[in-house]
Write a structure and sequence with these properties.
It is built from four helices and nine strands, in the order αββββββαβββαα. By secondary structure, it is of the alpha+beta class. The strands form three sheets. It has a four-stranded antiparallel beta sheet with strand order 6-7-8-9.
């Protein structure tokens, strides 16, 4: 699939990529150095410690579907998840009443599971119909390390540990 990623241009990098470094701050109430103050980091280094990007896969199946990737060091939370945002249904009035998208969240780390977030109509069906968010959650109870995640999940979890 990496071969199918749409190549970046100077224009798309400026529009679709955000890069940065963490600065000095506090973690759990204790002061921590910024990236440039870390041991063994050359002065003036421009190495990124955070990146967020929007990309596309060039194939008929994924045409026009944006993929958003975010990763970094010293973020507020340590988790790995895949979020699938569904497009609003074009034939329903419900999609115009709320800006919240229906989405499927596949949680990989620290706890694996699924969350399904949907907008649903509630009311009697006569007159004005209210829209409310509905959330369904399923977590895995498998805890033995070799069986905790499958092969594709291990691949995704290992992406930040391997040089590309």
């Amino acid at each position: 699939m990496l071969k199918s990623l749409k190549p970046f241009t100077d224009e798309s990098v400026a529009r679709d990529v955000v890069r940065g470094q963490y600065k000095a701050g506090n973690v759990d109430g204790k002061p921590v150095p910024g990236y440039l103050e870390e041991a063994k980091v050359p002065a003036g280094s421009t190495t990124e410690t955070f990146v967020a990007l929007r990309t596309e896969v060039q194939s008929w199946r994924w045409a026009g579907v944006p993929f958003y990737l975010r990763t970094g060091k010293r973020l507020a939370a340590r988790d790995a998840q895949i979020v699938v945002n569904f497009r609003p249904a074009p034939h329903t009035d419900l999609s115009r009443r709320s800006s919240r998208a229906n989405k499927l969240v596949i949680k990989l780390q620290p706890e694996d599971g699924l969350e399904l977030h949907l907008l649903a109509a509630k009311g009697s069906g006569q007159g004005e119909t209210a829209v409310a968010g509905v959330r369904s959650t399923s977590t895995s109870t498998r805890r033995s390390p070799p069986n905790r995640v499958g092969a594709y999940e291990r691949l995704l979890l290992g992406c930040d540990r391997r040089a590309v």
